[in-house]
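#struct-help
A.M.: can someone run this one for me? Single chain, 195 residues.
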Amino acid sequence: MRSLRRRTGEAFGLLLLFTIVGLSRVWPPKWMLRRIAASAEVRTEREAAAEKLVARVREIEAGVPWLRPIDVVIRDECVDVRGHHISLFGAGPSKKSMTCRMSAFIVFSPDRDPEDAVAEIHRTFPPPDGLSPGGISESLHWDTDERRVAVEVAHDALWARLTRRHGEKSLGQLRQENGVLCVWALHGGTYFTVV
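D.P.: on it. Structure tokens below:
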């Protein structure tokens, strides 16, 4: 009888442990993360991140006079980063629940050979492959039918906003109208995290 009680107690203890571990992997719930993403505190951080990115976009536009943006897209999103694979034995890959991040994309169609355009950018402006002085990761990408650049927000974002300077045309529509596009991507990194 004592053995049965002990086994029952051990089984109950393990069940309780698995329940606690399992709940800790889904806490806070998504509705709470959405509320946090829309809060005044996050909005303040979002505005500061946007100011930094927009200032860098203006700096690029002033530094490369022939670059005429067809569009400038700002992607702002908060995503659940807890992962989809829940393991009861051991920590997951991240202790974070949500991160909010912002990126900007300067879309242009060079009026010259694409390779000459890139060479000109490298001659007249700091190379965009790496970190800018403001800690913004930058890179140049050609957007073609074979190799498309994604500027849309994540389909499973908890909070998202996509703003376009020159209207609501997709990159596909801009590509049809202008031919090969170049996209100068600026990734500002994470501006808010929920642990």
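A.M.: thanks! The first helix runs from residue 2 to 25.
D.P.: also worth noting: Helices lie at 2-25, 30-37, 40-63, 114-124, 171-178.
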